[in-house]
Amino acid sequence: MDSASEPDKVSKPEMEKEARWADDPAPAYDVICWDDPVNYMEVETHVFMKIFGWDKPTAVKHTIEINDTGKSVLAREEFEQAECYVHQLLHYSLHATMEPVQ
Amino acid sequence: MKLVNRAAGNWHYVLDQTKFVLLKKLLETFPLIVAEAAPPLSRTDNNPRVAERNHLLYTALADHRRELEQQAMNLLTAEKFVSAGEGKALTISAQEREMLIQVLNAIRMGCWCELGRPPKLEPQSANASEQELNAHALLEVAGYFEYCLIAPDMAE
Question: What percent of chain B shows pLDDT beyond 90?
């Protein structure tokens, strides 16, 4: 096999993928948790570990980011999964929304 | 309220009589807020699909709140609290613990809404109304129990 044939083999699936996305775009959404004066940092950490299955350092990192910057992007998902996460976060009364990725 | 031990998927707490009465009264205040008090699904997405899904979100949250209310009442009526010395012992499953955390946090959120959603939870002023004082008190008491439930996790 000569090296010139390699790019074709690699690029074809990519082209198919691009074509599929052009016809049926599945926009990505950021799942964001916003700061509020009500929720304790410990509660946010607990909820993130519970919902996303994160270890404590990862959950704490996002909690601190919320406290320092006012928000943290917790996940980037397609519509349905992002919506599911927002519902779960709202069950705990955290201030969560899903925003389209620009 | 204090965690005594955690075994076989259950959490065992003890609390004195005063804390038991406080927790009972607190749970009886739930739900304080309606589902529409939650934020909309998205702040920036103008897609009509999102507007439609907002309606579903609020319906789902209202359903969830009704389930929580029922579970909270079960916790109070199912002889979960047994006498232990001068206080009570409470044994709850991991699922019941999560339910309790959700209920307590919803009560805190409800109190905040009742206070007009202030950007900061400042100490109440001297001329605060009785309703405001009550909301502040409930918010703090719910926070105390919530912290008792979660603190052992944070210490690990």
Answer: 49
